[in-house]
Amino acid sequence: MESIKRNILLNPGPSTTTDTVKYAQVVPDICPREKEFAGLMDGLRQDLVKIVHGNPDEYTSVLFCGSGTINIDVCLNSLLPEGGKVLIVDNGAYSTRAREICEYYGLPFIDMKYPVDQRPDLDEVEKTLKENPDIALVHTTHNETGTGILNPIREIGELAHRYGAVFTVDTTSTYAMRPINVHEDNIDFCMASAQKGLMAFTGLSFIVGRRDIIEKSKDYPKRSYYCNLYMQYEYMEKTGEMHFTPPVQTIYATLQALKEYWAEGEEAKWARHTRVFNAINNGLDELGFRQVIKPEWRTGLVSSAIYPDDPNWSFEKVHDYCYERGFTIYPGKISTTNTFRLCALGAIDEDDIRDFFVVFKEALVTTGVQIPVKYKE
Ligand SMILES: *Cc1c(COP(=O)(O)O)cnc(C)c1O
Known about the structure:
This protein has a domain at 30-247: Type I PLP-dependent aspartate aminotransferase-like (Major domain) (Aspartate Aminotransferase, domain 2), CATH 3.40.640.10. The chain contains 12 helices and 14 strands. The protein has helices spanning 19-23, 35-51, 69-78, 93-105, 122-131, 153-162, 211-216, 229-239, 248-264, 266-286, 315-324, 350-366; strands at 8-9, 59-65, 85-90, 109-113, 135-141, 143-144, 149-150, 166-170, 189-193, 204-210, 302-306, 327-328, 330-331, 339-343. A 7-stranded mixed beta sheet has the order 2-10-9-8-5-3-4, sandwiched between helices. A 3-stranded antiparallel beta sheet has the order 11-14-13, covered by helices on one side. The protein has a two-stranded parallel sheet with strand order 1-12. Strand 13 (330-331) and strand 14 form a beta hairpin. Helix 10 packs parallel to helix 12 (350-366) and helix 11 crosses helix 12. The N and C termini lie far apart (53 Å). Pyridoxal-5'-phosphate is lined by residues 12-13, 67-69, 94, 141, 145, 170, 172-173, 193. Pyridoxal-5'-phosphate binds next to loops.
């Protein structure tokens, strides 16, 4: 097996993959309607529940063909009963995406908006739940990938349940990285896709959630055909197959990625991501970069650095210099502050970050940016 040029992706997914996962896509052609393929998907669905420690009698996983946003779409449009309202606890771009989905479907919602560098106020969340007994679904984002802030999902989930609402969490950028336990974390539904924490490829997304709630949603208003959770669940339970054509090669890669996930282990994998994250923060600190999120609120996967006030600073130039040398850095996702992001996803370790900072520093020197970087105030 020839090794493939290794790029270090510091963007928030897709992430750097192993060659074994890349090559797992190269398989004999197969029709996904064959029993052999359905058998593979059964094991895959069980593993996806196991990663978040779900009791398989209570929790199941449902697969979709699409990027991660399809999961948010499916959860919101499928799990809201007639007359119910959605509460979005929103401190970033991904929860704002949930808001836009509600708008597109015409779902009633309350958007509890917080600044992107602040955590939600739990007393306010409780007050809103108390004053709006029609809230049937509470949604938030675990790690706001736009900034790297960690939200208190366990506490929000507890409140949602106390007031009789279903709790859906966008865990796309924590799943299979930062350990999650759906029972302890009060999660009814979480979600991710194969190209993030699992270190496989785009095309396969999945929702892990409570069977009883999915069963109940059978009678909820049908707002989408392709993106209906119950329809896909029922079809998969009955036949073992996805309703429509699955992303065949991505599924083979994901199966290999799962093997590698279990071989590395939850704890060791999280320790590796933490090493990478610490190396990123140390590197940024040494160069004098400021970050948006205070250290104690960081999820430990995304660093959001603020552009220095240096006339020579050019994200594009620094990006291109690094990109040509095999390192990808990524712009921020905050409308009020200019930032760039360095993420700790993927099959990388702290040595890769050390190598990265050699190149990154060279890029700053070459483009004439003063080191340590300067800020006006
Ligand atoms: C990556 C990501 C998504 C999915 O984005 P796509 O562009 O659809 O893959 C959703 N939520 C969060 C928190 C993410 O990090």
